[in-house]
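Worked example

This section walks through a single chain of length 614. The input is the sequence exactly as stored; nothing has been trimmed or padded.
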Amino acid sequence: MKTIRLTMAQALVRHLAALRVGDANGERLFAGVWAIFGHGNVAGIGEALYAHRDELPTYRAHNEQAMAHAAIAFAKATMRRRMMACTTSIGPGATNLVTAAATAHVNRLPVLFLPGDVFASRAPDPVLQQVEDFADGTVSANDCFKPVSRYFDRIAHPEQLLTALPRAIHVLTDAALCGPVTLALPQDVQTMAFDWPEAFFAPAPIRRAPMPPAEEDVAAAAEAIRRARRPMIVAGGGALYALATDTLRTFVETHGVPVAETQAGKGALPWDHAMQVGAIGVTGSPAANALAKDADVVIALGTRLQDFTTGSHSLFGQARLVAVNVNPFDALKWRALAVRGDARLALAALSRALAGWRAADAWQRDAASHGQRWRDEVARITGERAPELPYDGEVIGAVQRQLRSTHDDIVVCAAGTLPGELHKLWRTAVPGGYHVEYGYSCMGYEIAGGIGVKMAHPGREVVVMVGDGSYLMLNSEIATSVMLGRKLIVVVLDNRGYGCINRLQQAVGGEPFNNLFADCAQAGPGAPDIDYAAHAKSLGALAEHVRTIPELEAALARARAADRTYVVAIDTDPARSTEAGGWWWEVAVPAVSGRAEVRAARERYEADRKKQTP
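Given that input, the structure is written out below as tokens.
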């Protein structure tokens, strides 16, 4: 057996650089590595990355969490077909990745984390930045990754990589297991040499074989659907990742079944399709939620059925649930009739089993009517041009009017009021045109995520919509976007605080407190008047502040024509939101309070809980 003598870090990087998708001439599985170097990774993996910088590019960011968000967004934008890795030092650099690891874990998105670790030899113990556990000498800061990794390993000897790395790649590329992987790399082990088999650096290309559903599962699901008169589909992210959108459209048109969409599934069916009834659940459209409440069968297609989708299990509990999902954990939720398998193959199999069957004519007419009325309402809401302080829905309308393309432009968002408004109001005609991280609702994802999307689709306009709260949490990657030449259009909606939670606080009987700047503890000069345009300019972007919707549209035209990242800030109303649609969401209210508003909210809460399906 021929061998090559390399350090563990060199072998790791060389293997990653050799991985291809499809066949030996296919794209590289890893599009690059994000790195912020420190004493735990600069000498080992840093030197290895330099040697392979042409085939495996290394990108520098300004914050470890942000670079991981960029990697996660890249994987999502490529429908999980390609991915990126992230490497950090052993202490705060590593733990800065943990929030992003949770984001990837919740959203079932692949990213490879390569944090440095303490010395395996323990000779200099405790090393700088080492987290010491007084009861367990094997613990380091990287143990924080264990609950938020699909697979975790610590490479204590170089040869362990021969088994650990193939396992890691399997998890990253398997549709059911897909999620973040952490390989903790002790800094001395990174530099140790080993005689590696040559074959390790000629790995087999990654070929994804979609999982076909079991015939008996398809038959049982088809029988339940055939008995239905009022079925509907709730399309989730799995429909997109399985590339099932064409199959979904054929199924819908063949069998007359309306489709509602989760945040991750938005774009599975074009926004103007006759059987498209819009967003489902807490941030859903009145069309989708009305149909969901009357449906007798709900086909959950590639969705993990989180509480925003189910209305905390109050929305479609009366229906028989058929769950089509490649992940058994998700397929078995809520006593569903499970069809475990790839969404595209499962839909096609179900359609064959349902040959000749269609939903009731009246149900199809109701769905088409509800859907069209909602599309007309969306046009009205987003067509408004507020004479004074606009709200998010009107800003969304201006952005969509100016950009004009439901096929090429990609909107990116994550947290606050905007995801709910976008879920209802944004119109997209193609899979991937809507990129909203709402599984973990991670503030700070937006701008960094926009970079990852732009890296995946460099020829498309990427529009990041972000509230001032998220902007203040993590804005440094504006400078990264300029440095890398990854142009973004960033629209900052400034409502001077956390407007979404401020409204929720009042809805559960609370007094406005500690959310908007005006309601926070202050001293001296009081709340700052932040100039977001000036701040963005200081990071290298072009930027301006506007006050009205017409001014916003004009600024967006300039942004579209610009040659680099362009930030447009606009003041918005923190109190207003789109009234149409929505559904109950369980937020526990105190059972004891001295405030009458809280006691009244508790009474409503107890009444609403009775609507939940046990």
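What to look for: Residues 77 and 457 are 8 Å apart (CA to CA).
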